[in-house]
Specification:
With 208 residues, the chain is of the alpha+beta class. The strands form three sheets. A four-stranded mixed sheet has the order 4-2-1-11, with no helix packed on it. Strands 3-9-10-12 form a four-stranded mixed sheet, with no helix packed on it. A four-stranded antiparallel sheet has the order 5-6-7-8, with helices on one face.
């Protein structure tokens, strides 16, 4: 069974069928419970698990202007790159590692012919949020196999990989394939997705 994730209104993530939960040190901290509740308000004293702190701080999961989730495609001679701004966690892997392809301030901002094919593939495959995909000769990058897992990044979001469903009654979650990054600092303006706000919020998790 695939992982099922339900962001509760003004509350934690309810997670079912979670077989692998790892912290940033690579340690498996999986629970034997059928259902677990993972904190996303940043205030739990039992991270990554919820301890009810969201109630005392009146945590809000509301999003004023949720992004549409549109996929944009950039076709090159050898590869087509797909980009979804709604899912982007702004980790900077693409712009920092391959600025000749992901060109900040330029239009179009992605040049699929701007670097060697293997270098482009490597960057996309390392995208932690699932905001980037590619296709070559009709085969999409998300047709591979990833471990069904929740990984807790250091002072950052939950990284979800593999087979999972994200059921959020407050907004559309269409277009997600085999990766996403979910906010756990409570400050994202794009909840439940991480938007990099943990840096400005100076979110820390010393035990992770």
């Amino acid at each position: 069974m695939s992982i099922e994730i339900e962001p509760k209104l003004n509350g934690p993530y309810l997670v079912r069928n979670l077989k692998s939960l790892k912290n940033s040190k690579g340690a498996d901290i999986s629970s034997e419970k059928d259902v677990v509740f993972l904190c996303r308000c940043a205030k739990s004293n039992n991270k990554p698990y919820c301890d009810g702190s969201h109630k005392s701080i009146e945590f809000s999961s509301a999003v004023d202007k949720p992004k549409t989730g549109k996929w944009n495609d950039y076709a090159g001679e050898k590869i087509t790159i797909f980009d979804n701004r709604r899912l982007c966690a702004h980790a900077g892997h693409c712009t920092e590692r391959l600025a000749s392809v992901w060109r900040m301030g330029e239009t179009p901002w992605i040049d699929p012919d701007g670097a060697d094919l293997e270098d482009i593939k490597a960057v996309i495959e390392k995208c932690p949020s699932g905001a980037l995909r590619y296709s070559i000769d009709g085969r999409h990058s998300d047709e591979g196999e990833l471990v069904d897992e929740v990984y807790i990044s250091k002072n950052g979001p939950y990284h979800i990989t593999g087979a999972f469903t994200l059921n959020d009654s407050s907004r559309s979650t269409d277009g997600i394939s085999d990766k996403c990054a979910l906010c756990r600092c409570g400050a994202s303006k794009n909840k439940p997705f991480c938007d990099g706000s943990h840096w400005d919020a100076k979110f820390t998790d010393e035990d992770n």
